[in-house]
Amino acid sequence: MSVPRSASNTTTAVSSNHTPLVDPTRFPAVADGEVRAAHRLYEHLIGIWAPGVIEAAQDLGAFAALTEGPATAAALAETLGTDLRATRVLLDGLSAYDVVQRTRGADGQAVYTLPAELHGVFAPDGLYSLAGKIGHDRNVAWSAWRNLARNVRDGARTSDGAEQLNQISEEDYTSLVRGINFWAPPIVRPLAERLRTTGWGTGSGRTLLDVGCGTGIYSHLLLKEFPELSATGLDVGRIVPIAEAQAAQLGVADRFRCVTGDFWNDEWTGDTDLALFVNIFHLQTPESARDLLLKSAKALSDDGVIAIADHIVDEEEGEDSTQNRFFRLFAASMLATGGGDAFTVHDYDQWLSDAGLRRVGLLDTPMHRVLLASHA
Ligand SMILES: C[S@@+](CC[C@H](N)C(=O)[O-])C[C@H]1O[C@@H](n2cnc3c(N)ncnc32)[C@H](O)[C@@H]1O
What's residue 21's pLDDT? Predict the structure, then answer.
């Protein structure tokens, strides 16, 4: 298989996430550069307000209530058992981020509506819900960011001085993995297309190993794309039932099994036709990332493919690309919660070469790149 680098993202526009909170046209003509810069930075510093109001609303059950229909602050306060004025303040805060729409009712009172496309996003069991991500941020991220300066000073090391992997608890993963399924569809679609164009999916009895599978969403969507495929997910004990339940929910349980294991210390199933790593490499140190590829090479069939979907910096794309900016910032979030990094295409090429592998493709998706590799 020889595949050039290409962009596979769809052209459908996703609205910008930036909600302007400072109006630059309101500066007097004489405002000096430092004052303007302070306004710009202040807008970043109040970024914490967005998760503040969204998470509070989720905690209080406001989104669940608004899923039933639009409400005034008074009606919502009664449903939630919250203070009327404070509920109005919270709803107005949400409307500043376009999370709820604020309109005037016939009697002049503000009415708040949760747009239909956000109903599933806040539902605890929604397939593409962010509820798990919100829970994770409350349990882990808020306090972890306080550690960033220390980790930058000391380099996120274990007590014996070694570089640290990013490792949160199994319990914290049960929340997080349920909050990142939404990343899957724009990753699976171009990956499946690319595999198909290379003839990969045509053989019968093809096998997929999904290393650190989480809910198994990538396996489940790929199983729907390739009816001949069967998949094995590998993850820790508390995650396995989540992945198996979701396979049943998505109608692919007959071709999916999830096994409990430690992807470092346990053997992987051999002769794998597709070894999939999604959001696994950004948890690694350079050394452990290289080791993962050495292990993958041994588990891969002769014409097998390794697919790594992650926050992969592509230096050739230029410093200013939105993806590279996001990936480098993602690395800071990894450092805050432990170790890990956003590695570059160049890093991957080195490790692949060490493992007797070579890169055969690089796909772009909204918040990831997918690096494809096979035996050299
Ligand atoms: C960031 S999540 C990614 C989950 C999934 N691949 C996705 O992208 O939705 C990392 C996953 O790796 C699993 N994991 C981490 N270390 C592991 C290990 N040593 N052995 C097996 N699974 C592990 C975690 O339990 C978690 O489900």
Answer: 86
Per-residue model confidence as pLDDT tens digits over 115-172: 999 999 999 999 999 999 999 999 999 999 999 999 999 888 888 888 888 888 899 9
Q: Which residues pair with 230 in a beta bridge?
A: 207
Task: Give the strands of the sheet with 272-278, arranged side by side.
Answer: 6-7, 357-364, 369-375, 300-310, 272-278, 207-211, 230-235, 256-260
Instruction: Report, as ranges of residue numbers, the positions in the chain whose pLDDT lies below 70.
Output: 1-18, 201-202
Residues having CB closer than 6 A to ligand 1 are: 173, 177, 180, 212-214, 217, 234-236, 239, 261-264, 278-280
Note whether 334 and 327 are within 8 A (CB). no
**Domains of the chain by residue range:** 24-120, 159-375
Helix and strand counts by DSSP (H, E) for the chain: 16, 11
Alpha-carbon dihedral of residues 152, 157, 161, 165, nearest 10 degrees? -140
Measure 211 CA to ligand 1 centroid, in angstroms: 7
DSSP annotation string for 182-228:
GGSHHHHHHHHHHHHHTTGGGSTT-EEEEET-TT-HHHHHHHHH-TT
For residue 173, report the distance from its CA to the centre of ligand 1, in Å: 8
- Closest by CA to 222, choosing from 251, 182, 191, is 191
Give the CATH fold of the 159-375 domain.
Rossmann fold (3.40.50)
- Gap between the Cα atoms of 104 and 208, Å rounded: 53
Q: What pLDDT score was predicted for residue 197?
A: 93
Which residue reads 């790593």 in tokens? Answer: 277
Q: Which two tokens stand for residue 205?
A: 């009895």
Entry field: residues in the chain? 376
- Centre of ligand 1 to C-alpha 215, Å, is 9
Q: What is the largest CA-CA distance in the chain?
A: 72
CATH topology of domain 24-120: Arc Repressor Mutant, subunit A (1.10.10)
Per-residue model confidence (pLDDT) at position 18: 66
